[in-house]
Amino acid sequence: MNIGVMKSLDAVIGRLAASLMPRPGVKATPAPITAILLIRPGGIGDAVHLIPAISAIKSAYPDAAIDCLAEKRNSAVFSLSPHVRQILHYDRPAELFRALRGRYDVVIDTEQWHRLSAVVARLIRAPVSIGFAANERARLFTHPVAYSQDDYEIDSFVKLLGPLGIEQGEVSLPFLTVPQAAVERADALVEKFTGRAFVTIFPGASIPERRWGADKFGKTAELLAAVGVPVVVVGGREDKAQGEMIVAGGEGLNLAGRTSLSETAAVIRKSALLLGGDSGVLHIAVGLGIPTVSLFGPGRARKWAPRGDRHIVINKGLPCSPCTTFGTTPPCPIAARCMSDITVDEVFNAVTVLLTATGGLASACCKKDWIVRADGP
């Protein structure tokens, strides 16, 4: 279903249902906990940030089966976790009905704002239901949990586990697991770069305001080619034309539209670094333990930007940004200057600094020097 239609339905039907449905009765937490359902509508980035919480649940309750109710657009992320028993789809009626009929000890709705998922959680009638208390949806859970726009999203999701006695712990990297079939496919796709460090570029974004532009990515790719670093562009079919523009002037490979999500993850895992905007693909790289250079503008860097010294976040920090709240970005009256003001030079410098620090640039330069000597006298 169209995302805009979903939001409109939620604003009317979801709000009404959340206000009128009876509150659940508080019951004792089942012992033992044998089955848990996590509800995760939304995009790829939200799903990626939920994976550490799934790992924490499995660590605390190793015998519990964990199912995920997701959307078609983000469900493939859960195939990157070995702890998920079953993936059901929120936007496929037969699978939604199967979830509603399921027998679960605990239901955790991980949606931050919209109400329809909280209504679904209430209809499942599990003894324990947990969700964010962002609005009237709070009354549909046995255990509502406060939500903050300033918390790193991985931390927000782990806070949902508090009612189960699971406390915040250090997130181990990598926390995503790539299926072997995807690894083999990626090996074949990037075979021409075997033994060489390459940078993966994801030029896409969920909204136009988060796009930096294929022309700027292309100029960056040319500068990287000059120091011996090829690029591989990943993305969906909608990113294919941008990919061709990016690799046209340098050494590169355009895989946009040619890989599944798990194969995209496998390509990223082979790279020295990922360059991209605020996107789900960026978060996949973080979950794989790959260094990143990310470009932030409308999005909330405090909540979504990668953490740690293996990541560089470029954010112009304009007075009007961030402007995105609960996934909604208003029309920009100044043509997304927060993104357009980011220059090619500062992105290239950030990439080379990080490649140098992590050893990627040294190996690329050594390879380039070898090629020059081999062609020389």
Strand content: 5-15%
General shape: globular
CATH topology (level 3) name of the largest domain: Rossmann fold
Structural class based on helices, strands and sheet pairing: alpha/beta
Largest sheet: 6 strands, parallel
Helix content: 25-40%
Give the strand order of the largest sheet, numbering strands 1, 2, ... along the chain: 3-2-1-4-5-6
Unreliable segments of 5+ consecutive residues: 366-377
Classified by CATH, the class of the largest domain is Alpha Beta
Order of helices and strands: HEHEEHEHEEHHEHEHEHEHEHEHHH
The first-to-last residue Cα distance is 63 Å
CATH superfamily placement of the largest domain:
Glycogen Phosphorylase B
Q: What is the name of the CATH architecture of the largest domain?
A: 3-Layer(aba) Sandwich
Number of domains: 2
Spatial extent as radius of gyration: 22 Å
**Extended strand count:** 12
Average pLDDT reading: 92
Total number of helices: 14
Q: What can you tell me about this protein's structure?
A:
- The protein has 377 residues and is α/β, with parallel strands linked by helices.
- The protein folds into two domains: 3-164, Glycogen Phosphorylase B (Rossmann fold, 3-Layer(aba) Sandwich), CATH 3.40.50.2000; 184-375, Rossmann fold, CATH 3.40.50.2000.
- The protein has helices at residues 3-20, 44-60, 93-101, 116-124, 153-159, 180-189, 214-226, 240-247, 261-270, 280-287, 301-304, 337-340, 344-358, 360-375; strands at residues 35-40, 65-70, 86-89, 106-109, 128-132, 143-145, 199-202, 231-233, 252-254, 273-277, 292-296, 311-315.
- The longest helix is centred in the N-terminal third of the chain and has 18 residues, at 3-20.
